[in-house]
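Hey, weird one. I pasted the 3',5'-cyclic AMP phosphodiesterase CpdA sequence into the form twice and got a warning about non-standard characters only the second time. First submission, copied straight from the form history:
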Amino acid sequence: MLIAHLSDLHLYTRRSETGQARADIRCVVEQIVSDLLSLEPRPDLVVISGDLADGGTDEDYRLIRQLLAPLPMPIMAVPGNHDRREAMRHILGERLAGLQAGRFLHSRVDVGGVTLLGLDSVIVGKPQGALCSERLDWLARELEKAEPLTFLIMHHPPFMTGNPHWDAYSLIEGQERFMAIIDASPKRILCGHIHQPLHIHWGAHYGAIAGSPAFQYHLVPGSTAAPTESQVAYSYPLHHCQPDGSVLVHLRHVT
Ligand SMILES: [Fe+2]
């Protein structure tokens, strides 16, 4: 079971809402798609941990649907703070694996003895994320029937990143109950939002943040200063689930 983790594509059609997404981001995403198609074996699943769009117009999501169309495997995605739930569901919904009905864009996929739960952590109009009681109730219900090897996909990291500036823009509601809900067994938590790859052993859990092909930051440990952009090479991780429950993480560099 091979899972590719992408995040923060920040694709746009007219202009970059953040003003930061690289002008050739659609070409870079085409290269990532080509790289995924070149893998042997190919990933069984692609997960995207939010900010698929930079502004979230219907045209943006049509572009995303078009760029991802060559991928034959299921794609699972959660929204980020730069996505728009309605447009994302309307334009991309049929392409997204395990997308649940309701006002949040949660999703669930069970494949190859692995459970993947996509948790919508967005607060509309704010960069920070939140897990309200309704979302945490959903998570608790879904975990009751989850495989021992379970991945949680969410845009906002529930753990601190060691960079105080960014941590203020992370999850601001629900961490305590989230931790209590997931603590029954170790989970693998895949996030985005920070635009810099990062791994953490968090309690009994493994957490990972994927980098962004659109723009990345220098994250200086402990710094309270606003991070500056970095030209560090982009790579995305492949999580290779083994029969004994262990997971190898390979990095794919896309130049
Ligand atoms: Fe982002």
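That's the output from the first submission. The warning seems to come from a hidden character in my clipboard, not from the data itself. DSSP finds six helices and 13 strands in the chain.
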